Prior knowledge:
The chain is mainly beta. The chain contains one helix and eleven strands, in the order E-E-E-E-E-E-E-E-E-E-H-E. Strand 5 (about 45-50) and strand 6 form a beta hairpin. It is elongated and about 50 Å long. The chain starts with a strand and ends with a strand.
Amino acid sequence: MYDTIRSGYEYPLPRSLRTEDLLGVMACLWLDPAGQLWEIDYANTHSFVDAKCADMIPNGNHGKVRPYHVTKEVSAYCGQSANRTLFRLHFQEGVLQYYQAEQRTAQSEKTNDNSTIDSRSSKPN
């Protein structure tokens, strides 16, 4: 399963990324403009309408936002098309240190021939 990273970080990092390298439970994460990664927890914010558990309504509880302290390289994709961009995000204690981007095609992923068309790296100020 994919986790979604919403980003407020500087351009050219896209506003929405998908990854399997973090929690792997369809979690929502936020990368703030300073490069800090946050986990957004929506648990217990909705209740079932009846015993059939078909519909849910907001119950007035607020979700929780907490820093997500991870030290690793995370591979994340922007989009699901055949030509998509792979971003390698390098985190240290939950803070983005730098990232690299490369354009990939579905064919290059099958043949393991990943020629880099577009490569960028950025280090936060």
